[in-house]
Each structure stands twice: as C-alpha cells, then as structure tokens.
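Provenance and format

Records in this collection were gathered into a single text stream. Each protein contributes a sequence line and a token line. The two records reproduced below are adjacent in the stream.
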Amino acid sequence: MAETLSILTPYHPPRQTMLSLFLRKAVQSLLFVSFLWINHSFASEQPNVLIIMADDLGYSDLGCYGGEIETPNLDRLAANGLRYTQFYNTARCWPSRAALLSGYYAQQVRRDNIPGLKGGGNAGTRPAWAKLLPAYLKQSNYRCYHSGKWHIDGPVLASGFDASLDMRNQGNYFSSKGNHINDVPVRPQGLEPNYYATDATAEHAIQCLKEHSEFHPDKPFFQYVAFSKRSPSMPIAIAMVGMLCARNAFAK
C-alpha cells in the first residue's frame, strides 16, 4: 500500500478557534480531511485513488502539522507517507476544484476571471476539450464516485462519475433539502433531526466504496470526497457533539 498525505485546501485561514464534527470524525475514520490515498487492495495492477478535499482547512489544523485537535489516523498516514511543505491553490472553491480535476489552471478552462476578458469565473463554462479526470480514468476501466461539494460547471454524472452526492445546500448543514443524488434533487419527506452534511458526505463515500467492493471488485476506483467550507471553519454550523469534542482543546 502506498499512501500520500497532501493538503488540498482552497483557503488557509488563521488557526481556527473551533473545528467542526469533521475533525472528530477524522479521528475515527481514514476517510477525512485532505489526503490522497492510493490502495492496491482491490486492483492488483491499477491503483485505487481516493482524493479528499476540505475547504477552509488550515494546514496547521491537522495533528501532524501541530494542530490542537487530535487526528491520529491522519497523523498515521502522514508518518507512513509523504507530507508536503509547500502546496499551492487558488484560494477559492470553484477554481481550485477546476484545476484539481481538469489539470489546467482555472483561467485556462474559464473557471476563473482574467482581467479584461469575459466568460470566466464561477459562472464560466469549460471548453469541450477541458475534460475532468474521471473521463480519462473511465478509459482505463475505472469506476468513479463523487461525494460532497461539486462547484464545477455541468452535471456530475456527465463529467464521468458513476455516482454522486452533490452538496448544493451550503446554507443549512442540518437538512438534505436542495442537495442532489446522481444529479436528481433530494426532497426530504419531513424533519431530519439526525442529519448533518459533513457526516452525510462521508457516509455516502463509504457507501460507494462498500458497493464497489461488492459489485465491482475487479475494477479500480476513483473516489473524490469534497467537503465544503463549513466543515472545518464555521462554528455556527457545527454539530453539538463536535463542539463538545473540541471544547477541551481550546479551554485554555
């Protein structure tokens, strides 16, 4: 097994006063924060690839970089993998995602503004030649899964993914209303007292991998998990259990 820890955070804010349930869950699962995990367990010749991205996560929030919150699983990945000392991004959600999945600078694919030119930015549409990574991986027999914030132009499945949870509801982390599953809007049938978007993102990713191991064990997978801006950095959107978990670390 080869493991690489890479920080993929579109914004590096000052040290957070409180992290959300996101980091509490990271203590319990390897499916969190920003790292690239390459695993040869399912496919002997082609690696499985897991990219996890977190908006607004400061690199020093992780335990392996001196953070106050304990993140033992992530620290273990760092100890046995590669830690970056320099990593560059576009400091915003949509251009970082466009660059990560297309391999081009966001300005090249009309996903960021260029002074004096029109047609770029958050509402920009990629040229037809600017395909995303899954479109290429599909040519090598990969199954591709997306969980979390999309924030790229075009439908998710049309971009090469086989399954998707698109967290479009960025204003309320305690309701699934407004999100999309496989590009179809979610319409909850009532109150969702136990719903929390960060958990739902991780649970969807885990479910995708479980189903992959059951129904497609002969194929490699690409799993893209993209947590949104409120996962690490918004105290007003934190679940109570995450608040209690972080309280002692910042009591001083």
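Adjacent record:
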Amino acid sequence: MVLLMIIPTTKKDGSKFYEMVMNTNPVMFQPVYQPDERYKNAPNILFGNAGTNADYTNPYAELVKGYKDYSATTIVAQVELKQNLEFITKGLNARVLANTNRYSYFDVSRQYVPFFYRLDSYDKFTNTYQLSALNEDKGSEALQYTEGPKTINTSYYLEAAVDYNRVFNENIR
C-alpha cells in the first residue's frame, strides 16, 4: 500500500484541492464521521484522519476550514501637455509628460483549526464504531484572523522639454 501525504501550501485554488483529493488515500479515513456514542454531543465537525497526530491531509477539512480575501490593484496614469509659446517668441514650444504606476496588494485569512478523529474500531454486526480524537488540544472552533503581506509599489516619471525652432535668415543655412 502506498500512502501519499500532501504538505499544504498557502495558496489553495481549485486545482490545488483537486490535487489533494487525487493524492489522498480514499479508504484510510472518511472525510467526516457521524458522531459515535462517545462524541454524540461534540459541538464541532468530526473530520476524519489517521495516524497518531492527524498525520494526513483531509481535503474536505482543508476546503471548509476558512477563506482568504485579497485585493490587488494596478493604476497607470499618464498625462502629456503641449504648449505653443508663440506669444513669447516665434518658434518656441514646450511640453511636459508625467506618468505614475501604482500596484497594491493585501490579503486577510480567516480560518479555524479542524478537529480530527480516527476510527479505532468497527463492529460490522451491530454497525457501530468508536472514534478517538487526534488533536483535541490543538483544534479550535473560533476563526483566527491572519493578515497577509501588504505590498505597495509606486513609480513616477516626469519629462519636460522646451524646443526653440526658428529660422532667422532664409539665405543662411
């Protein structure tokens, strides 16, 4: 029997969940257990796992344990002004070009730590089973608030030019 363990990453999109599902052993544990007699009043979802310390990835628990909200913004602005300065002297022109680029990103995660349970025994004649908690002291029902990185990149560009183009004597070149 080959068992694969997936190390969770910080970015989980649809393809990452699909990869988790495809690489998780489908018979090692159920995604969620119905409460047995011992845990019939458990206030939390009984996510399945195996090992002694919830050693395996439960894709369902990863999917429903929380969310990440993010915002990314890119602003590009440019303005160019051209002015004929004939009122000062003939042939005088000026121009100004200004540009700014701004990128910003932030994210916020809210998630809880799932409670994992292992199937200890199953009696097929009475269709009863016994579960044991794997992380009673580490699990949490409360949503944790985690701020991610905040990134702001800004650049400015300014260009100015004055052009004097005048012929004083047509005969001299």
